[in-house]
Design a protein that fits this description.
The protein has 101 residues and is of the alpha+beta class. Helix content is 25%, strand content 34%. A four-stranded antiparallel beta sheet has the order 2-3-1-4, covered by helices on one side. The longest helix has 13 residues.
Length: 101
């Protein structure tokens, strides 16, 4: 039996984090939220990329992606909350799924 070449490999010191977020949004706020998200990812303190982003029938959906050494995601959600809050008050309820690859 041939040993698995990946068994002896040490675990990477970081993980790829994926955050899927969706929330209800009125059509008139879509352009503003998209602009705010663009400013959000361009901020020098933010290491997050938007992989997908779309709006369909009142639901805004996006996937964020970033590398993490700790597996934490609170800061990314806080930045996202601030971006959406700059356009829509009160902020809609986010539905969130987090995956660590």
């Amino acid at each position: 039996m041939t040993p698995d070449p990946f068994d002896a490999k040490p675990k990477a010191p970081f993980s790829l984090m994926r955050i899927d977020v969706s929330f209800e949004l009125a059509p008139e706020h879509v352009a503003g939220v998209e602009r705010a998200l663009g400013a959000y990812v361009d901020h020098p303190d933010v290491q997050t990329e938007i992989v997908t982003c779309g709006y369909d029938d009142g639901l805004f959906q996006l996937q964020l992606c970033y590398f993490s050494t700790t597996g934490r995601y609170r800061n990314e959600l806080a930045w996202l909350h601030k971006a959406v809050q700059s356009v829509v008050v009160p902020v809609p309820v986010f539905t969130v799924q987090i995956r660590e690859d």
